[in-house]
């Protein structure tokens, strides 16, 4: 059975018949190739609720860079795993900054298709079983208007369900707190169940 997680590839040198795309389509229902990063990031922004994995080449043409695309993505969400698949250049200082932008993996273009597919499948499993995904599923399942205030924090700030999802996706301090509170509640409920 194919995964429903969307795989987006930003690379201006490969084509639809590239072995990576063919192999990924054997495992994932949706694999989309973009040669223009701005279009890919716009697509992700419009469908931020979809589980997505991004494979990103850092060397793009037309004045775009993968590094800028990654920064733009991280302004939207930290929950999307990004696999950097590029010709590595140790002299490029941007390469070192990728760590701060939470790249899931960084691989050279010489990495085998099988290895890249394995990494994408691992990222898919991490999404499926991650705490943030569980919290998002819970939030999306709540009845009522998702734009109405739903939660008031200890400092008096109110959050709608949609705002809670945004905080989790952007990996803000508040989003981390929501996720940690879910863990605490789960542990508490599991402990009480055994009593």
Brief summary of the model shown:
By secondary structure, this protein is α/β, with parallel strands linked by helices. It is 47% helix and 18% strand.
At the fold tier of CATH, the topology name of the largest domain is Rossmann fold
Look at the structure and give the mean pLDDT: 85
Largest sheet: 5 strands, parallel
Taken together, the total number of domains comes to 2
The largest beta-sheet arranges its strands as 2-1-3-4-5
Number of helices: 8
CATH class of the largest domain: Alpha Beta
Determine the CATH superfamily of the largest domain.
Response regulator
Unreliable runs, pLDDT <50, ≥5 residues? none
User: Percent of residues in helical segments?
Assistant: 40-55%
Number of strands: 7
Shape: globular
Taking the alpha carbons of the first and last residues, their distance comes to 39 Å
> How much of the sequence is in beta strands?
15-25%
Would you tell me the structural class of the helices and strands? alpha/beta
The rounded Rg comes to: 18 Å
């Amino acid at each position: 059975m194919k995964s429903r997680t969307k795989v987006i590839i930003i690379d201006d040198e490969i084509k639809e018949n590239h072995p990576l795309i063919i192999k990924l389509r054997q495992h994932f229902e949706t694999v989309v190739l973009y040669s223009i990063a701005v279009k890919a990031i716009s697509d992700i922004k419009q469908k931020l609720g979809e589980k997505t994995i991004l494979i990103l080449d850092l060397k793009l043409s037309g004045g775009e860079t993968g590094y800028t695309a990654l920064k733009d993505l991280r302004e939207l969400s930290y929950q999307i795993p990004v696999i950097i698949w590029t010709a590595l250049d140790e002299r490029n200082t941007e390469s070192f900054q990728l760590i701060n932008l939470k790249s899931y993996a960084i691989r050279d273009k010489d990495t085998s298709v099988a290895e890249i597919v394995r990494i994408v499948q691992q990222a898919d499993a991490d999404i499926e079983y991650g705490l943030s995904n569980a919290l998002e599923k819970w939030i999306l399942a709540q009845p009522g208007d998702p734009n109405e205030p739903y939660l008031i924090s200890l400092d008096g700030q109110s959050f709608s369900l949609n705002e809670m999802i945004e905080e989790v996706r952007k990996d803000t301090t508040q989003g981390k707190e929501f996720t940690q509170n879910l863990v605490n509640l789960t542990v508490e409920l599991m402990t009480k169940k055994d009593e």
